[in-house]
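FW: tagging you since you asked about this chain on Friday. Here's the raw sequence from the shared folder, copied in full. Didn't touch anything.
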Amino acid sequence: MTPRRDIVHTAADLEACWRRLIEPLGFASRQVFAILIDRDGEVFRSVIHVTECPRDPDDEMVTHLAEALRAALDQADPQGSCAVVWARPTHAGTRASDLEWVRAFAGALDAVGLGRWPVHVADDHVMRAVGPDDLAA
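HL: got it, structure written out here
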């Protein structure tokens, strides 16, 4: 039997996919998760997972990750997209430092043509999409 593959067409689909992939929530360090999605919405089987991220955004790391995601999609499906979760240990809810990471990811993904999906943030209890209003605040 072939395992079910996630299909992402909407923001709700994406959140359900993330929940299936990274729940239960609870993180030992600051981490980034990324998935690639083909043009038909099918999520590739591999999850990119970077652990032990610094407290403050590392522009070089974020840029290299975005470029690597773009290169992977160029090989697999140039019309595909990707999605990212910034995760860290705490119960504090979304903090200013989280929004700095989200801004860094959003900017880097936009720069390589991958800014289709909102960046999600997760802590030990909550996961949510960060929208433009949150970033403008």
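FW: Residues 93 and 123 are 7 Å apart (CA to CA).
HL: agreed, and The chain has one domain: 11-136.
FW: great, closing this out.
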